[in-house]
């Protein structure tokens, strides 16, 4: 498809042009409907008016990375046939409480527009949006074909909203509720699925806490023969899990409940055989409060695992090592740093196919605990897992040399997110800044798309980034840099930069204004606790009308300073739903 | 670096402006105030930040801490009761040039105090000069962990106040370890060790001038518990002994009960001078006898 459209684009010959001009729209639409990538579709729509028209009629999925970059009216006007919408709302730093409550990103206005223009809407995926129970009820009642709801890191709703979805969405295939600020008052929502309801394929309520009716859950699982993904919450015991597994041997992704229960010999054997019977499980998560005693029940299932998520399970290095020996096909691994370097060494030794590793801190705020992982664990993984390309690593110490070794072993990093948890911490062996570490990363990993830096960093890090990170799209910076020059290097040097988020850095007006023309090619810029003034923001807003420049003011702060600045491109103009603490300039 | 184990020099607070060599401390009242400041301690959620390009020619950024947050700043031991006032306008420099390598604290008098952190940064717990409690003051939104995850982790661990020393979280069993004369506490997770030998060698590494001696090698006591003479042998063998506070609040010598029983009842560990520990022996004997 791509080559065909390319050939057509490149043909300057008039005879050929005449052919393409008479090409029936319907055929073009069918051809284009096979294009799924958003970027391809954007390119296609820019070719000529005919193609723009064909593309807009044939598009069924839309992805909006910033809900304020476009309005519901503009969206529905351009694309009449959308069945699947993905919307992202608040800036990412809202996950870390840096964005005031009531900031915005409310889904409701969108739903109202969709009810009129896309009554046949099937899928809605929301990330960092404000969602109310009222909105969920509205959704459940106005879209008869609705199939898929995925809410990640959203807030504002309660289990009542879920009850509405369960009650009214007769064709629901997927309900995926993850890491939301949800008011979890009761588990009765699960019992709202009618007895006649059988279409569910994905059910993920792992992050809810209330107890659900286990009989209702069992019956639901029994009658939904296409159920492929089941992730239950902590309230589900081992024994209950076993009963569920027996009813769903076709499961492909499983999130267990609490892995802590006094099991006698027979129930343990039942559990083990239930797991053995589920031959298609490739993703495993949950394992809340897992006790090493029962982990062997999983060993056989582990042989086929490609994704193991232990990020809520505090396993020590020994018991984790014993488990990981059974997971040779692992491609993605999420763990807590309780496994320590020894645990990661076991990963390096046993998981040669590993592509993604995320190590979360079990106790990020307690400095007395000196365990966790160090640079040694990371290095050990890099020696054993040469295909590693995605890493998120929280640690308390790091060295430049270690990072250099890591990227030498694994030059294919696309996502490198290193969080040395004490801000401004230097290389603990040499006491030097960590500039050379990130220099090594950007010099060696030419495919790097996403980078998060940490530790003591001077402007040199940013010089390196600007000079070498030519494919970088997302950069997160905190407590780093020396002067405006740092930020300028990045703005001038990274052609593909889309998202830049900065906090607590000495970058000021000169840096901010140096990116004047750049920001329209980016999705957004976040700067908080930096050195930026209101006047500079006003100047920016004045010169760039297609950018929204929003400043979040904190109580009692200096009026001339811009504490938190969020700048993004938009075709929708300044937004009208900002709370009083957010000034749009 | 002296291998006395505590490495006081490395953890000393020094005076000096960021980027300059810190001069040797001359007039400090307390010559061996080994205090390490962690960046985590200086900013609370309401911290006011002011940028004074004018004051710092190198355009190093400075942010000042509001009075409330400054109250949580860790004060050097020698400061005495005037510390609160001094710290009201404490400024913190972050990201210094070579040499200092760590966060730099500017106290009310305008002098800069750098915290050297060549090793992982540790918090100093000094219960004596207690006006300012450092441990829980944090930078907002750092480390960058989603609220959901933070809430889940904290709800899985029991509340940790000053008196309850053992913290159970996510299947771990953290207990505080203090050593007489050492300026800081450590925490260990008892679940990571399977025997007294394990624990002993780990603690030895942490507090390298301490030896548990032969306490760990025979971990199963006889019916009568440890004989008095054997206990004396242990105590005479080393300068320090390892003791623990059990569920009842009694201080016991480590090693006199089976390992599992120990991890069950241990709430806090203390490396005590053996001269102070002599009095424990009879009590340990009593308890063993009572248990049997």
Shape of chain A: globular
Distance between the termini of chain A: 44 Å
Mean pLDDT of chain B: 53
How is the biggest beta sheet of chain A arranged?
21 strands, mixed
Q: Major sheet of chain B: size, sense and barrel closure?
A: 6 strands, mixed
Low-confidence stretches of chain A: 1-11
| Number of DSSP strand runs of chain B | 11
The name of the CATH superfamily of the domain at 174-210 and 227-276 in chain B reads: Phosphatidylinositol 3-kinase Catalytic Subunit, Chain A, domain 1
Molecular shape of chain B: globular
Oligomer class: heterodimer
Alpha carbon gyration radius of chain B = 22 Å
How much helical structure, as a percent, in the residues of chain B? 10-25%
**Count of β-strands of chain A:** 23
Helix/strand class of chain B:
alpha+beta
Q: Determine the CATH topology of the domain at 174-210 and 227-276 in chain B.
A: Ubiquitin-like (UB roll)
The rounded Rg of chain A comes to 26 Å
Keywords (chain B): Auxin signaling pathway, Nucleus, Repressor, Transcription, Transcription regulation
Region (Disordered) (chain B): 1-30, 75-96
Family (chain B): Belongs to the Aux/IAA family.
Subunit structure (chain B): Homodimers and heterodimers.
Describe this structure in words.
- The complex is a heterodimer of chains A (about 575) and B (about 290).
- Chain A is about 35% helix and about 15% strand.
- Chain A is α/β, with parallel strands linked by helices.
- Chain A has a 21-stranded mixed sheet, with helices on one face.
- In chain A, helix 14 packs parallel to helix 15.
- The longest helix of chain A has 13 residues.
- Chain B is of the alpha+beta class.
- Chain B has eight helices and eleven strands.
- In chain B, strands 6, 7, 8, 9, 10 and 11 form a six-stranded mixed sheet that branches.
- Chains A and B meet through loops of A and helix 3, strand 7 and strand 8 of B.
- Chain B: It comes from Citrus unshiu (Satsuma mandarin).
